[in-house]
Amino acid sequence: MKIKIYSSIIALAFSILGINAQKVNLEKSKVEWIGEKIGGQHNGEIQLKSGEIQFTENKIETGSFSIDMNTIICTDLEDAGYNQKLVGHLKSDEFFGVEKHPIATFKVTNSSSFVNNKATLTGNLTIKGITKKITFKVTKSKNIFTANLDVDRSEFNVRYGSNSFFDNLGDAAIYDIFKLKIKLITNN
User: Fold this and answer.
1) Which of 34, 47, 69, 177 is the most exposed place for a label (fewest CB within 10 A)?
2) CA 153, 128, 181: angle at the middle one, nearest 5?
3) Which residue has the higher pLDDT, 176 or 122?
4) Are 63 and 24 in contact (CB under 8 A)?
5) How far apart are CA 5 and CA 143, in angstroms?
6) d(CA 54, CA 59)
7) Share of the chain above pLDDT 70, in %
């Protein structure tokens, strides 16, 4: 009974302050990745484990998201064996070390107000236990938020095939920047 009362009081306080907390719809939201190398690329998806955004008027005040690194898939390789080999390699210690680091997170630390449905977010991205500050643009359309991020994997000790760590890779080099295309849909 006390929990219900406290929850109601918190909800009322948020309402009075104009704070609107929204959970991310995990089934409808989507995170796509693209990794590029000399002469080609691979792409796929990864699933959110949790997500919540809190608004005050026209600004994201806080937000936290966790990504289940075990859900990484490749969508461009039709050969099942090669696809499985690539996904296994991405989960290995040479890339994301998923066994030791199964969750990646992002926490909003600052946001501009939305102007023409666009805002700038800054926050802490944690991959492989390493946290780095990143800033990117987000677009809002009703309860849908989209963003395109360029992430430098070398900052998170993702070394395989990186010219930042190894010399003379030539055509075997994989670019340090991987791209994330994010579409978050909140439950209103």
Assistant:
1) 177
2) 50
3) 122
4) no
5) 28
6) 9
7) 83
Interatomic CA distance for residues 31 and 69, integer angstroms: 11
Strand partners, 56: 19, 59
Backbone φ and ψ for 12, nearest 5 degrees, come out as: -65, -45
Q: What is the pLDDT of residues 2-23, one digit of tens each?
A: 455 544 444 444 444 445 788 9
More confident residue, 161 or 119: 119
Dist. CA 76–CA 4, nearest whole Å: 48
Model pTM score: 0.84
The CA distances from residue 22 to 47, 58, 75, 101, 153, in Å, are 18, 14, 30, 27, 30
151 in Cβ contact with 125 (< 8 Å): yes
Is-contact 24 184, C-beta < 8 A?
yes
pLDDT at 114 over 70: yes
**Does domain 21-185 match CATH 2.60.120.20?**
no
**CA–CA separation, 185 vs 66, rounded Å?**
15
Q: Which pLDDT score is estimated for 21?
A: 82
